[in-house]
Structure formats: C-alpha cells, structure tokens
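cron nightly-structures :: item 1 of 1
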Amino acid sequence: MKTKGYYTFILITLTLLLACQSLTPSFVDGNAPAQTQETISQPTIVLAQTETSNSSAAIPEIEMILIPEGEFIMGRDDTNEEVGPSHTVNLDAYYIDKYEVTNSQYRACVDAGICETPTKNRSHTRENYFDNPEFDSYPVIYINWDMAKAFCEWRGGYLPTEAQWEKAARGTDGQTYPWGEQEPVDETFGNFKYEGYVEDPQGLTGDTVTVGSYEKGVSPFGVHDMIGNVYEWVADWFSPTYYQISPSSNPLGPESGECVYQSGACKVMRGGAWQSGAYSTSGRIESRPASASDSVGFRCTRTP
C-alpha cells in the first residue's frame, strides 16, 4: 500500500514541473542563433491589443521579428561624411516589424480616431489607393513623421532609431545590402530601379507593391523590403556629422536636426523606394518631418 508521504512527494514533483513550464516564454528565444550570411530564423511575435495603447479599439495583428542584443557595424567609410565613419554600435534587444506598415493596418488606427488620414488617397499611378481594399497589403504612403510616430505609439511601440533600422537591415557584419555584397542586377531583389534601368526599363513597377514580395531581398534577420518599395521614417533628427560623436551604445540621434540640401530641421528616412536606385543599408536621407509623399512609409519597433 502506498503511504501518505509517497503521494505527497508525487504531488509536489508535479507542481514544480508545471511551474517551470509556465516560466518559459512562448515567443522569446533567449538563445538566438549566431548570425551567418544566410537568413537566420528569429523569434517572432504577433502584436495585437496592448496595455499601453491609448485606445480601446482593436489593434491589427502585426508580425514582428526579434533583433537580439549585441554589436553591429554601422555606417561606412566614404567620401560622403553623412554616412561615416564606420563604427561599432551595441544595441539592446528589440522587436521590429517584419514588413512595412500597410494600408489596412494604418486604416485601423484612423478608424479608431487616433491617426490622421494620409494626406492623399492616391498613389503614383492609382487614383484610389488608401481606401481601396485591393491595396490593403500595400505600404501606406503620404504619411509624415508625426503621423508615423502616432501609429507606432498607438500599438505600444515607437519608430525605430537609425541604429535599430540599420542593424535589422544589414545584420552584424556591415554588409552593403540586406542580401549581402552582390550588386542588384535585375528587379528581383526589391522594388527599386536596378542598374541599367534607363536602357532596359522592363520589369519596373512604377509604384508600390505588396509588402514582402521579394524573398531575394530579405535581410539577415528575416526583415523584408528594407531596400525599396518605400522610404521609411525613423526616429532620429538628421545631422551630417552625428556619427563622429555618436555614442557606442543605443544611440538616439542628435537632440535637434539640420538639413544639408534644404532649409529647416530634418528627420531621417532610410531604405530607398520604388522610384530610387538600390540604396545601401547605410544610406541616409534627410527630410523635413512635415513632408509626405507617394514614396514614403514606415515600420515600427517595440521593446521586448
């Protein structure tokens, strides 16, 4: 006959096992694999309604990818001081959207009464774009910096810093493009104008396309459309000399902005667009925060 002490021992053992299982996170892999030149598999979450949201309206489910804590090479040594010098930066872990924010996702924020409607409903070649369900999975455009910031905050997140955007785009070893060092030779790498497009324009889209359409152009962490489709707003003010004084850990950009090629104070955009060439992952673009166009969108980040 089993004793009372034996059953007590069994009960305690089962309780401890169940407790250990409940402490294991369901979406964070603390042992993220070391990066290789190939695309690496990263833990993802689907971000829905959060406690930090300032609206009771449902937030759309948006897939994000974990970028693990650690160092990466930012910038490049170039005759253009705006992108250099090349320097090592350490970042805390963060999540970033796997894809650019889409029309349908942004529309949910508009419907919730939080976000402003894009400044124009059209795209470059389509009269009805933002409100048209046909383009729900295309990147939202005609969004200025404040509008992008408001959407990310509605989700409980924020616009990525330049450093966060660049690490997600190029990986840890400073590669020139999300896919490596290979020059894009045709339109299969991303939605941008490839080398030789003047002589051979076949295959150019002439406008935005569905997010995530170019598997060949995915970054080492599995983030899509970091080069092409639309330019992307980031959090930082623009300064052409910031990299010369940038801190080595979690840089947030300068306290105020300046423009080099236009008047006023500028924010930073990254990534190139459907009407540009293939920007490198270290390329920086200045733009006044109130500007909005048919080639500018954004994505969000979030602290784990």
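cron nightly-structures :: done
Strands lie at 44-47, 62-67, 70-74, 87-91, 94-97, 231-237, 267-270, 285-287, 296-297, 301-302.
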